[in-house]
Specification:
The protein is mainly beta. It is built from two helices and twelve strands, in the order αβββββββββββαβ. It has one domain: Cupredoxins -  blue copper proteins (Immunoglobulin-like, Sandwich), CATH 2.60.40.420. It is 12% helix and 36% strand. It is globular.
Length: 190
């Protein structure tokens, strides 16, 4: 009886170890879509794999209760208080991703929406007069921002010089989302 019990316990341990070590890897489906259903604090995938030269569409569904951002890059940068805020190397730099809806896309080279005004419309308006949705200390590089329940699509062709490992991340709430595990590995294969 003891042998049977010991064998059963060993078998259960092997199964438990095997289950605990798996990762959720997502690759583009037949339509070239990478569906990420995210929440607090996960993108719904541990690893996303793509091929260089491939055109992919990230389908981003924010099923969480909080606002989340989608960024891809390398080397996390921290602010003066030690909070992770962005990637040093932006994956989308030099690329022209197509975002639907366009209002979800944000980046340093894009116009900020300030109560419907752009920087060129500043005639007689001070920055204090406009409701700005960005905290300039925390928003660097290309990103897609989504409120709870929102979806967006980002279509981009993966460049050949992007081969290697990157990270997908969310740095909302002064880096709390990143620190809480809202990140995934992004692998570009040759």
């Amino acid at each position: 009886m003891r042998r049977l019990t010991a064998a059963m316990l060993l078998a259960l341990a092997v199964v438990a170890v095997g289950c605990g070590s798996s990762t959720n890897t997502v690759t583009p489906n037949a339509a070239g879509e990478i569906v990420l259903d995210y929440s607090e604090f996960s993108f719904g995938a541990d690893v996303v794999e793509v091929q260089a030269g491939q055109t992919v569409t990230f389908v981003l569904n924010n099923g969480g209760e909080k606002e989340h951002e989608f960024m891809i890059g390398r080397t996390v940068v921290e602010n003066d208080l030690g909070h992770p805020t962005q990637f040093e190397h932006d994956f989308f730099e030099g690329l022209t991703p197509v975002v639907d809806p366009p209002s979800a896309a944000m980046g340093m080279d894009m116009d900020m929406d300030m109560d419907g005004h752009s920087m060129d419309d500043m005639d007689g308006h001070s920055m204090d007069d406009m409701d700005m949705d960005m905290d300039m200390d925390e928003q660097h590089g290309f990103m897609v921002m989504q409120l709870s329940g929102e979806s967006a699509r980002v279509t981009v062709t993966i460049p050949a010089d992007a081969v290697g490992e990157w990270e997908i991340g969310c740095f909302q709430d002064k880096g709390v989302h990143w620190d809480s595990g809202m990140r995934a590995k992004f692998v570009v294969k040759a």
